[in-house]
């Protein structure tokens, strides 16, 4: 029997026009769109973005709950059977595409889903997307790395020590998921004279977008700091 | 007088379908496409990719020579007057788009061009693209970073010490422009037991594409290594 293919699709960082031609093509031919939602009855930011650039009207939508909580073991959750409807769809030969913000290979739940399905023997493909730090750097018209400079990407969630270590010696540093960490990140950057070398990106591509000097409020999960050290 | 806008456009890492919807739209409305070429009479990989996905037939093409040599000071070269035709076009109100492989913010010459034009007072915009390491990770169906892992991106050109330092302590490491460095990179990875955790990406999206275990030959400028340390 013909088996379906699971596509993990990066839709870019907030702006529908940042979607790739392949992401649009794959989503428009999919039978089922899997959308990660943060709470029951909630909406998927990734789906909303995709729906603005691609015609998703013919596809069935399948929500899967992924609470945005630190220390949440998504792999464990996925093994609990939440993927059963996805497996059933693939078994019946249907094409299933899961949307994810940014790029699939950068902190994405779709990456775990794909891996578990591949382990079960399903055919999978990954459709790359523009990661949020690239989308943000474009909007801020800044380079992330030049010449022989390095680029380090760190999530601020439960890793203050890692951020402090990175600030000891770096060329360019991107701190992702910085929202809740701003309370200690801001004083740290001020102390090290790095505030004027830092650009804050919040909700890139969304109506609440902010690009500019770092500030504490309002809180957003999608907060990224670009810190330039190359010229220091 | 109306002045044109300069767009630095990332076209993705080799596959035309990796271009974003905005890159296609901007290139199709541009009056002039600036293409970086590695030698006189040479071709531009970025232009070839863009031309497969976007209709560029109405745009004038303007080649600018950027020799791919280490220690080449592109900024100095750009200040020498090579941008004069671009400035003239912008002064006459024409829209100018420069194509670049991957993303504009990641080791791109277009980023220097944009910066110099902005310094001269021209309006500029950056159109983000899928960087080569994301395109490669997608093809290899690997994640670059998960959970609280960090990601470090390093160019191998003239920075063996930096690579060795990074290998001392890392979660995930991407070594770009690794082609000529493979002669010392391969023994180094073997010595540290990292060969089996390394995926080599060469000419991603091009006919000569290779994704698999690291190997020495043939040499390509577009060689990237993905090294996973998170599970070690």
Structure description:
The structure is a homodimer of 232-residue chains. The first copy, chain A, has 232 residues and is of the alpha/beta class. Chain A has two domains: 5-127, Tetrapyrrole methylase, N-terminal domain (Cobalt-precorrin-4 Transmethylase, domain 1, 3-Layer(aba) Sandwich); 132-228, Methyltransferase, Cobalt-precorrin-4 Transmethylase, Domain 2 (2-Layer Sandwich), CATH 3.30.950. Helices cover 32% and strands 22% of the residues of chain A. Chain A is built from eight helices and ten strands. A five-stranded parallel sheet of chain A has the order 3-2-4-1-5, with helices on both faces. In chain A, helix 3 (74-82) packs across helix 5 (109-119). Chain A is elongated and about 60 Å long. Chain A starts with a strand and ends with a strand.
Layout: helices, strands, pairs:
Two copies of one chain form a homodimer.
Chain A: E1 5-10, H1 21-29, E2 32-37, H2 45-53, E3 60-65, H3 74-82, H4 84-91, E4 96-100, H5 109-119, E5 123-127, H6 132-140, E6 151-155, H7 160-168, E7 172-176, H8 182-191, E8 198-202, E9 210-212, E10 223-228
Parallel strand pairs in A: 1-4, 1-5, 2-3, 2-4, 6-7
Antiparallel strand pairs in A: 7-10, 8-9, 8-10
Helix pairs in contact in A: 3-5
């Amino acid at each position: 029997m013909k088996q379906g293919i699971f596509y993990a699709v990066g839709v870019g960082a907030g702006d529908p026009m940042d979607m790739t031609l392949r992401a649009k093509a794959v989503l428009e031919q999919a039978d089922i769109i899997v959308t990660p939602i943060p709470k029951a009855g909630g909406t998927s930011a990734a789906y909303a973005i995709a729906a603005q650039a691609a015609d998703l009207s013919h596809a069935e939508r399948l929500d899967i709950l992924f609470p945005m909580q630190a220390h949440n073991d998504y792999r464990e959750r996925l093994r609990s059977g939440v993927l059963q409807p996805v497996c059933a769809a693939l078994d019946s030969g249907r094409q299933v595409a899961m949307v994810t913000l940014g790029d699939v290979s950068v902190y994405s739940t779709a990456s775990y889903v794909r891996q578990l399905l591949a382990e079960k023997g399903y055919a999978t493909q990954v459709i790359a997307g523009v990661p949020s730090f690239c989308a943000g750097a474009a909007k801020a018209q800044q380079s992330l790395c030049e010449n022989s400079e390095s680029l380090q990407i760190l999530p601020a969630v439960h890793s203050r020590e890692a951020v402090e270590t990175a600030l000891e010696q770096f060329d360019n540093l991107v701190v992702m998921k910085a929202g809740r960490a701003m309370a200690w990140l801001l004083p740290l950057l001020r102390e090290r004279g790095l505030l004027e070398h830092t650009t804050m990106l919040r909700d890139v591509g969304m109506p609440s977008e902010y690009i500019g000097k770092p500030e504490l409020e309002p809180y957003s999960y999608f907060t990224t700091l670009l810190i330039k050290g190359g010229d220091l």
